[in-house]
Amino acid sequence: MNELVPLSTATLNAMPDGVRLPGYDRQALTAGIVHIGLGNFHRAHQAWYLHRLFDLGLCHDWAILGAGVRPNDAVSRERLIAQDCLTTLIELDPTGMSAEVCGSMIGYLPVEDGNGALIRAMTDPAIRIVALTVTEGGYYVDAVTGAFDTTHPDIVHDASNPETPRTAFGAMVAALKQRRPSGAGPFTGQSCDNLQGNGTVLRQAVVGLARLTDPDLADWIDTNCSFPNAMVDCIVPATGPKELELVKSFGIADNAPVTHENFRQWVIEDDFCNGRPDWDKTGATFSDRVHDFETMKLRILNGGHQVIAVPGELLGIDSIAASMANPAIRGLLQKVMTEEVVQHVAPVPGFTAPEYLDLIDRRFSNPEIADTTRRVAFDGSSRQTGFVIPSIRDGLDTGASVTGLALVSALWARYCQGVREDGSKVEPNDPNWDALYQTAGEARTCPLAWLEMERYYGDLARENPFSNAFERWLTMLNTDGTEAAINAYLNG
């Protein structure tokens, strides 16, 4: 192998042949967006759309300033700053791989206690959008009521210390408090997380936090800022040793490469209070039907991920593609989705729900995507409640079957017992793992103890069509095992 070229602005012209490079002068870009949460998904998705827009010679005043509010974001910052915030994106397609260097992020703000640098950046009138990828569980939503959780310690802290907040939302409120009298005006808050009504949820967090300390400011934010809903979609695995070696095969030394599938979708409500980039010119869709798009994606793709990742983990299967190669798990996905999910999902331009399921089946089966079952099964307390339980409620509301979805919930309970079928330990894989593990242990002898976690299931323990099936499945999982229970469902 030839000597690797370290990734940086200065070395772009020395990059190996075949690597797609930015076709714009990064030195001429200016920031218009602060993005909080610079994980792999953002860099393969939103940052890419902007990067390709810059390639068209458009919107060069909309570059990204990266930011983070968690202590471990400092590690990511150090890694990216060392390579001028450039990222190698490697597309993994069964027909062949390709690589391009994405250059739409031009800086990464210091990660500080009190978030001073972040607040200062967001007060700049040039910043017109503050975007976030902070995970589904990062919006302080009460799982039972859906309301903003004002009792969470982070929110209590920010309400008591509004000038030195701990959360992204506290920093946004602090910046808007300064922008209002300065004349800088409002900005758009743009959630890019997998949440139903993600813009609405973000508005709830920002306005709700502001209302705890400054009701007049809260009213101003609610009236003047915009929070567009959006649906985002691209399968982006975590970066590990395999990905670090893969980028070397292209001749690049990159300490933060990102791999992704050859599919992206971004559907956005066109509600921006202070301008926006022309993302539609690089493939994004502006639509007033975001809810229908996101329902299809969240119920079938994200819900489907939970259907296959949890039994895959229990059976010691490492990847999503390998889980799809297991006939029982693939059969579970097809039967649950076909019989209990797709009938509750409206068609959207370009796809009916069954057609989208066929697309998801192909995407999940892509052997080049090394997406681990452990990564996808992470944070079931947010993902099961966000992606699976809504389909259960749809079925109960319409009198449809929820037997397979009850099995999916029982598999999650079995997973949280913390041991796989082969006896190996499941390391903690949820922010609420300790409580889940304890309840899963109780559910070995009293299965309904699991459904009595009202913060996740609400009143579903009292819905007999679901709770009776759940009790039967969890008992079978504990006595006969994962494959036996899935096959019983498939043959039932």
UniProtKB/TrEMBL annotation:
One term of GO molecular function: oxidoreductase activity
Q: Does the keyword Hydrolase apply?
A: no
Checking Pfam families in the record gives: Mannitol_dh, Mannitol_dh_C
Q: Does the keyword Nucleotide-binding apply?
A: no
Q: Which UniProt keywords apply?
A: Oxidoreductase
Q: Boundaries of each Mannitol dehydrogenase C-terminal domain copy?
A: 290-472
Q: Tell me which domain of life the UniProt entry assigns to the organism this sequence originates from.
A: Bacteria
Query: What does the record give as EC number?
Result: 1.1.1.-
- EC class of the enzyme, as a word: oxidoreductase
- Domain (Mannitol dehydrogenase N-terminal): residue spans on this chain: 32-281
Segment forming the signal sequence: none
Q: Which PANTHER family match?
A: MANNITOL DEHYDROGENASE 2-RELATED, MANNITOL DEHYDROGENASE DSF1-RELATED
The entry's protein name is: Mannitol dehydrogenase family protein
Organism in which the protein naturally occurs = Sedimentitalea todarodis
* Lineage of the organism: Bacteria, Pseudomonadati, Pseudomonadota, Alphaproteobacteria, Rhodobacterales
